[in-house]
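Exercise (ungraded).
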Amino acid sequence: MKTVWTFRALDTLFFRDGTPFHQGEGGFVQPKGTFPPTIMTLQGAIRTALARWRGWEPGRETDWPAKLGGPEDLGSLQLYGPYLQLGERMLYHAPLLLFGKKKEQTWEITRLVPGDPVCCDLGRDIRLPRLVCPVEGGDPLDAWLTCEGLEEVLADGKPKEHQIYSHDELWKEERRVGLERERDKRTAKDHHLYGITMIRPMKNVRLVVCVDGIPDDWKLPERAVLSLGGEGRAVEATITKVQMINPWPKRPELMEDGDGLIRFTVTLLTPGWYEDPEAVIRSGPPEVPGRCVSACLGKMMQIGGWDMRNGCPRPLWPVLPPGSTWFYKAPASERHRIEELHGKVTGPRSRYGMGQLLIGTWSEKEASEGWKR
Amino acid sequence: MEALIMGLLAETSLHPGSGQSTGAIDLPVSREAATGYPVVVGSSLKGALRDKVERERGRQDPLVYEAFGKQANAGMVLVTDARLLLLPIRSLSGHFRWVTCPYILERLERDLALIGRPNDFGSIEVGKGEAALAQIDGSELFLEEISFKVKQIDQGILDRIVDAVAPLIHHKRARRRLGRQLVIINDDDFSHFAKFGLAVQARNQLDNNTKESQNLWYEETLPPDTVLYGLLISRTNDGNVLRALRDLLMKQPYLQVGGNETIGQGWCITSIGE
């Protein structure tokens, strides 16, 4: 059965980053909330809900449905996401080949393209990304795009104003201070004050996860309240059966250049979990044919999560952030292989929906013309 | 899914604090980041409920751990934030008013639908500077020092709102005056009162011997008669724990939430919306 799960926060959510809490120590570094959460958090909530609807309760491990796998596998499930949804519009993290800033409600954006070969710490003849046009005070775009906006970017263009959403338009951070009660004295317990940053999604912002592989004979409610993330915060989950799962943008037409090569980009739609992250940073995901020319990558994220079965945190693992983009050249004979990569999930955690790739295009002409420092 | 809605009527001022701030108010109340509305955060409400059960039933009572969990596992009851529903605002035109806005009522609709009690209040249109109420006396209503142009609220809409909100208020007398005192203002106008309309008290610590001021600070509180509500949701298929908690709250409805307990703040009376 193919289903789409949308999650609406009832109030705030807390998905802790890798920063540890420290008890009884000083220091101002406090755990922050991240948003959207990783699929590791969401898969736990989804599988727990599915198991409960099959009659399982915590502590009754023999009742756990085998089809839902275990701590290290998903059984028969295949997940895709998480994506964001604002009202009826799906939103995706902007590819990191976009660079710019928002100035008084107006976005000033340019693209990054492979620059001239240089000798640097990565080796000889390395083509570092460079800007097509200068944007004073800009940064790699940390924003969200609508489906149409992302299709523009994949087709070697730029998104329009109304297709870009900054974090502030989608969620707010809410700092909270908590304490432990001294139960006998009914006062705040010394050295047990803590601060966390929670996330309050704006109205009509939802998380979306697509779940494939749920047995057809399982009965699912249309709506349910689940707890998600830290502090057992509540979300309303809406579960819809669908015919097809493809909530990602369309692939642009791949054109063969005069030299018989196809120039294409590979962008991560979801975080990329790979066995050898260093190799992937240098030459892209292992499944991609052709030669990696350049890349625009974000800072590695750390993904952990909570192992409910064993009651302990999962070890942190470095993953590439969504939006990371590699520029490739490949012979035209590889066209079919390249096209098949669009929407494909890659890496050892592909069943979790991690490492989902989108194919776009880039042009050598744009790379060789335009603004140079 | 078993769930219930719990109303909280403030009997005394509430100080659900958010720690210190560097602004004009040293100890503000906690607020929702997106709306700026005062809120009793879920962890605070859950702690207060846990404390309540421990005091009524004893610390070792199974209900404490089953409902609220322990170090090794989470409890079976999910507690949301207590959201603002009605804010008492002083009126120069007469007695205070219970003020709310279309967005808050929309949230209530959504939350009621979530727990399986769908309500449709209908279309509530209130322009900026307008106040919709049941009984019009004159053409203007003053809330604090701001003048609002009054308009008659549709009786059908008012009845539906009162039917949904009244069960969240414990006292029958207070329920009876709900329709009379309810005022719905525009979302933007309500934002102003939610941000700037709360009571701010100056507090002072005196030196025992010289009676000189040692520490002066300002703190913000939600006024008595504020109405908030939260959802209590069973995390398992078995709703027995939630029902036991409901029964306890129906017998012993008073709950202390937030800070300053020793100066009489934080007392609410709960009401389970059946």
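Further reading is listed at the end of the chapter. For now, observe: Residues 93-153 of chain A form one domain. Chain A touches chain B at residues 10-12, 52-53, 55, 57-58, 171-178, 181, 183, 186, 195, 200-203, 221, 223-225, 227, 231-234, 236, 311 (CB under 8 Å).
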